[in-house]
Amino acid sequence: MGKIVGGFVLPHEPGLFFTPKEAAKPQLLEVHAAYDRVRDRIGELQATTVVVIGADHYVLFGPQCLPNFLIGIGDVTGPYEKFPGVRQDEIPNNRELARHILQHGRVHGFDWSASKSLRVDHSVGLPARICALPNSTVKGVIPVYLASGVEPLIPIRRAYEVGGAIRAAVEAADADERVVVIGSGGISHWVGMPRMGDHNEGFDRMVLDCVVRGDPEPLFALSDAEIIEQAGNGGLEIRNLACAMGALPGRSGALIAYHNEPDWVAGLGFAEIHAAA
Amino acid sequence: MSSEAVEVALYDLGVKREARTGFASDPEAFLARYALTSEEAAMIRDFDVAGLQARKVSPLLTMGFWTMNHPSRSLRDYLAHLRACQ
């Protein structure tokens, strides 16, 4: 039987990774320290597989086909964007568990879309490379993409339920897997909009407070129009955080870090969700 | 006005090298491949990203379109253009 041993929420702002650590200012070093903290906690949890929930930014999937929620069950490579020191070749997948999550979900009311060959972007590729794969215990990273950046969007409650489907599948798996789930998304950010570069710390901390308290209800109550008004179109990515929460329902957690800076696009929130009630 | 054909064109211009090459060499001929109205084609040809956003085209696409195809390819210029149109 598999087990969800922990969860994390973290941002995936590309700009953080274009500057080498050696040239980073103190604020950026603090952000990298938060990623390092997530990496180390994944190791301490002795995770064998990490599920990373990301958002397409209208690059991987075009207007011709926009999946509601998709799982990578085969070859995985990336991220397709070039970052200094970040590999772009194969990301080892746990194909057996990925296919099990897909099949278990389809039997239980979750009609996963599937990719047999997926080149991921920064939203999945950076957490995989930076936080998951440096741990020797981690044998595979399973990519999941939610419709959290491009309309039509998955409802936030459904994103949470998809997290529950991941949990149910893991617990029904034969293999003795220790699984960590990462919800990858910036909080407030206005991508490609006139307010790009702005932040809403109050909104960001409200979302992080929901994560830490294990309470998704305030997130469910937000309309997409309210999110865009308060946190930009990038704020719609809180679906990814809600999905990670759904994999650890009712579990509380702890804030790891929060930062925003004028040079950064998004409000950057890091938190751990504890598996123990 | 339908934004779907516009989004297909902008998606192609964001992710496909051959689309960018075709657009750069002959915008009118390239845009004729898509089911665009003359107004839509003109907005793309003229990099009217504010106008496209006003018609509910995804900002993810307008940003990628500008930074991959505009002569400046500058995000700073893109944002300045958007803000000037507000």
Question: What is the fold-level CATH name, i.e. the topology of chain B?
Answer: Protocatechuate 4,5-dioxygenase, Chain A
Helix content of chain B: over 70%
Main sheet strand line-up of chain A = 4-3-5-2-6-1-8-7
Number of strands of chain B: 0
What is the total number of structural domains of chain A?
1
- End-to-end separation of chain A in angstroms reads 19 Å
Biggest sheet layout of chain A:
8 strands, mixed
Number of domains of chain B: 1
SSE string of chain A, helices as H and strands as E:
EHEEHEHEHEHHHHEE
Describe this structure in words.
- The complex is a heterodimer of chains A (277) and B (86).
- Chain A is of the alpha/beta class.
- Chain A has a single domain (3-274), classed as LigB-like (Protocatechuate 4,5-dioxygenase, Chain B).
- Chain A is 34% helix and 21% strand.
- Chain A has an eight-stranded mixed β-sheet, with helices on both faces.
- Chain A starts with a strand and ends with a strand.
- The mean pLDDT of chain A is 96.
- By secondary structure, chain B is mainly α.
- Chain B has one domain (4-84): Protocatechuate 4,5-dioxygenase, Chain A (Orthogonal Bundle), CATH 1.10.700.
- Chain B starts with a helix and ends with a helix.
- The mean pLDDT of chain B is 95.
- The chains are: A alpha/beta (277), B mainly alpha (86).
- Chains A and B meet through loops of A and helix 1, helix 6 and helix 7 of B.
List the helices and strands and how they pair.
The complex is a heterodimer of chains A (277) and B (86).
Chain A: E1 3-10, H1 26-44, E2 49-55, E3 69-77, H2 95-107, E4 113-119, H3 122-132, E5 140-146, H4 156-171, E6 178-184, H5 201-213, H6 217-220, H7 224-231, H8 238-247, E7 253-259, E8 268-274
Parallel strand pairs in A: 1-6, 2-5, 2-6, 3-4
Antiparallel strand pairs in A: 1-8, 3-5, 7-8
Chain B: H1 4-15, H2 17-25, H3 27-31, H4 38-45, H5 49-54, H6 59-69, H7 75-84
Helix pairs in contact in B: 1-2, 1-6
